Amino acid sequence: MDGKKRVAKSKLSTYRYYFLIALVPFIILVAMYEVMPLIMLVIDSFQLDKDPSVAFSLDNYTKIFSTLSYQKAMENSLVITLISTGVGIVVAFLGARAAHESHGRYKRFFMAVLNMTSNFAGVPLAFAYMILLGNAGVIKQIANMYGIEFIQNFDLYTSNGLTIMYIYFQIPLATLLLIPAFNGIRNEWHEANELLGGNTAQFWLRIGIPILIPSLFSTMSVLFANSLCAYATAYALLMNNFSLLPLNISASFVGDIKTKPKLGAALSVVMMLMLCIVILFNNFITKKTTKWEGR
Amino acid sequence: MSYISFENINKQFGTNHVLKDINLEVEKGQLVTLLGPSGCGKSTLLRCLAGLEQVTSGKIFLDGQDITDIPPRRRGIGMVFQAYSLFPNLTVYQNVAYGLKIKKMSKLEIEQKVTQMLDIVGLSDKIKQYPAQLSGGQQQRVALARAMVTEPKVLLLDEPLSAIDALLRKNLQIEIRRIQKQLGITTIFVTHDQDEAMTLSDKIHLFHDGKIEQSATPEEIYAHPATKFAASFIGNYNLPVVAEFNKAFQCDFQNESIAIRPEIIVLSKEPVEKTEQTLVSQGVIKGYTPHGSLTRYNVDFDGLQLNADVLFNNNMAFDVDDRVYASIAKDQINCF
Amino acid sequence: MNKHSHKSAYIVMTLVIIWLVLPLLATIIYSLFEDWTGIIPKGFTLANYESIFTNEDFLTSMYQTVLICIIPIFITVLIMLLALFVVTVYFPKIEKYVQILCMIPYTIQGIILSVSILILYANSESFFGNRMVMLLGAYCIIILPYIYNGIRNGMRAINMNMLLEAAEMLGESKIKAFFKVIVPNIISGITVSSLLAVSLLFGDYVIIRNLSSTDVNNMQQFLYQTMKRSSTEASAVFVVIMLITFLIAAIVLTIQSRSSSEKLKETGK
Fold first, then answer.
1. What is the ipTM of this complex?
2. Residue A141: strand, helix, or coil
3. Mutation choice for A interface testing from C13, C81, C113, C173 by most A CBs within 10 A
4. What local confidence, expressed as pLDDT, does residue A95 receive?
């Protein structure tokens, strides 16, 4: 590089540093309301509610993993999350495939319903299900009239009821996330499979699902986070009368009973770790299953 | 009965009549081309033979058997698509082996056949690569191997070279013809490229608007196009307005249209005598385009413009604005 | 095979639609009738709607919802426009880090974000200890992934660096060119992501419950309180919330389909 160019370049690069000013608002916002709070959360999780003088202790964590109610909260959270994620991804697979195979007005209607309902969760969802399946719910009354026992015996205000609602809000989200992946499956592959003697099941087993695996897993990790962190649906249905991670976390900060913010911080960290494990697992799967994409 | 025969095939998509009463026969071991502009129905006919589309009416016979209502997977047909038909998550080897695996052949047999077929298409060194790592031409060769390895009764090629650049395309055309002859496999090739059709085929079926316009050998179709459309689609025929042509060359054609190949118009600077067999007129060179071994002159005969091909002999025979005499052998003019 | 698979596709879509629409439909009907104890509801009435639209608290919560939805979106869009402009044009190397920072809220979601902000500022006597400020800060962060993606995808789609260079050659400064050429071109992308952010904030319950003081309520909280008192009135609140959510989704869909059909026209397909 000759001298002139170098001078010009260094001038340009000092000049471009003025533009860092435009980044300042972003940095302030993120630092104040995302990074620092999260750091504080982690620090707090190692301190004690009873004794503020202790600088570092693992007591909160040992307490979480040894107390029955917190164990139950983690178990409930994980079970509901895994079931709703599993059912959600299967229904979404079928739904996205159906949307991929069809055209025209009915598909547009289907897409519109998905889009409309994908934001439908939380308090309104819990309320709608109370109208439908609550103790005096519409379906309950119909079931009572005709003596349909399994609906009569169904209790919405349990983890079963919660699971049904979680499945409700997972389906539109998961389907919308999967549809673009299905559009990547070309018609020629279906046709080639058929001409080579394969049937539909063989196509999906050997070609379709292997191609979709990365999308399926990344959708599942979104569903997992979405369900694990869901607060409003559970709170509206059961208030704090149920052991569930988000309910317990929130209750240790805000509530009528005595708050335990340090323990709540530790619970939050546990929840974050669960999310991190899922994300890392997802990254691992993606790396393993997309070998064929690269050049 | 021929090896493949289509009998009165009709195909409608809604109100759109894509195939109109098609009758077509293909002999065993031949390579025939379905040629025509896009949207003429040629691909649809191919897809009907493969079973990927249902015919609206008519019957299709393959090797003496009525296959009209048989599902694609039991028709014994191999097909190569325009592009991107390889399974992206499988290696070259796995792609070619796919059909054999579904037939539940033994591992050893599969390996033998796949290796042999990859050898024939010249990709033995790419066995472990994924389609994304191959060029477009290589991908189509794998697709060819995948279609042929199951030893289908007939091989269908649906514009397999349309996404490949010109130079490679010529090579692959020759390659496809070589492999087809080597294996003696009955092949139907769909294309919109007349040069490609001429290079490859034993027989060309020219499609236009859902009907077969002409069925003939490449030589025949080139020398004697049966209709005005055939003349306009094949070669570089001059298609003058008959009245204008009659005026310029003082003749009296009564046909609806005539077609004149550029190479039968003979140009010279010296006056030429009109005879019983030839037509003569005088014109002015308006421009030219070099085409390798020949030069195409655009000649104006009092408002009537015709193209004439002259062999390139190290120097240009004529210049722009030269006055020339043109003679045309009468019996070489195609009349419809 | 084709006919068969189409039939099963319709069956699947119909079942999913029934599953998704049933609770909504039931609640709508519930809100419009006096009595629904048999199969057929009796006594059509609009009384529930009358009563909520004359309820001062409901109107206040509606007004407050609009306010606390719109302010954070304006702030975040502006901040992200500035940040992404500088990063893509002058410091492409740090783009990765900006992206990570913007995607974190997507994983931690409302519950963890709200309690961690609570830990940091709840006991502060300063401006930052103000409940409204905490709420707005949390809202700005929670919508970050959506706004980031909207602006980023927009910039990618129009090949921003090339456009800026072209404008520079015509004698325009980069900053001016950014606001004159780039922003108008990505405005529909920004609108879509802002609307997605609106519907996210509109549906928020956990952040506002954990962070705001009792005198600030959004419609979700109002619904929660109403449903403890009267389920018929709550059903009317529900319908209003649902209509607003659907309206936002419908606007997003129209903008998206319009811009995609424009793209199709441009490429001539």
1. 0.88
2. helix
3. C13
4. 95
